[in-house]
Amino acid sequence: LAGIAVGLGTLSKYNFVLVPLAAILAVLPEKDLRARVLDWRMLAAIAVSALIVLPHGLWVLNHIGLATGQTMGEMTEGHDGVSFHGLYGALDLIGAALKGSATTLAVFALVFFKDIRRILPASNQWTRITGRILLLSLLIVLVIVFALDVTNVRQKWLIVYLVLLPLYLCLKIHAAGVEVAPKLPGMVAITSALTIGVLILLLFRGLVAPYFGRTSLVHIPYDGFAQAVRRDGFPEPQYIIASSGIVGGNLKVQFPKATVFIGNPATDDAPSNWPAGATVLLAGTDLEGNMPANPGAELAAMAARAALPAPADIRHREVPYYGSKAEKRHAFYYAWTVTAAK
User: Fold this and answer.
1) pLDDT confidence of residue 305
2) Residues sharing a CB contact under 8 Å with residue 157, sequence separation 6 or more, in sequence order
3) Of 102, 117, 165, 277, whose CB has the highest number of CB atoms within 10 Å?
4) Torsion angle defined by CA atoms of residues 15, 203, 287 and 231, in that order, rounded to the nearest 10 degrees
5) Cα distances (angstroms) measured from residue 338 to each of 29, 214, 296, 335
6) CB 335, CB 310: distance < 8 Å
7) Of 43, 47, 27, the residue nearest 35 (C-alpha)
8) Distance CA 43, CA 20 (A)
9) 239-242 sheet: strands from edge to edge
């Protein structure tokens, strides 16, 4: 079970693998638990996790740039404008950890403020182990920051480690012998209000923001674009070649029967011999909603990567955002292609 959990966790998020590594290191100082780490069954758990990760791991080895390029780009944002990259990244890491911990610490301090003096020095084996896991995880991240000259650490990247903080605090409270039953209603009320409040805020921000002229990726009117495209008189596209993964994914929602490619040989493999008479839609958009300087060239490049002739009839649509009082519009560019009959 441990091997399965570690394998699936690593597949879901690469940096998860630091947590079991930190856990093994955290247990080693405990004499009565050290034998658990050295048990032969630990090797079985590692083997199970390795088998789960192996297929994807082999793909990563052959596509390392594709697998890590976007994240590495985000981690080194502003790299050229900084002299001491590791130091700058370390300060960003500390700031992200503090911001990620602030709400949790504030809630526990508010509920247990009368017992803080008892809780702070309280300790037992499990507080030590959990505290070490949390600290070692962040220290390993710090080593990575210096090793890779990272300049930017986002708070969301640390959540997989900071999720241990509530557990650590609960273990400290237990070690202190604090009676928690009277505190439970207050804790439930605060955490429920925060959880439900954030969900409501996210939902209504998405619904209300366009009325104030503020739009984001979730507001791009792909449905309006799909309706406009259907009015061109062509049959439903059998294939779609999109300008990016985000555009392709959204068009797949609008045209669920179509096979979608993003025209990138590194990520998908368009057929070298297209079926005769197939209807292909080439479509793109700038995520800010602006029309590129030469949409024809953009579509021609997409067609070339898919071994299709450059389209001659370049079209565009400016679709209004839902709820936008200022009639803000989003520009799409596209072309239709029907593959030649054999």
Assistant:
1) 80
2) 15, 96
3) 165
4) 130
5) 68, 38, 17, 10
6) no
7) 27
8) 13
9) 259-261, 239-242, 279-284, 329-338, 315-320
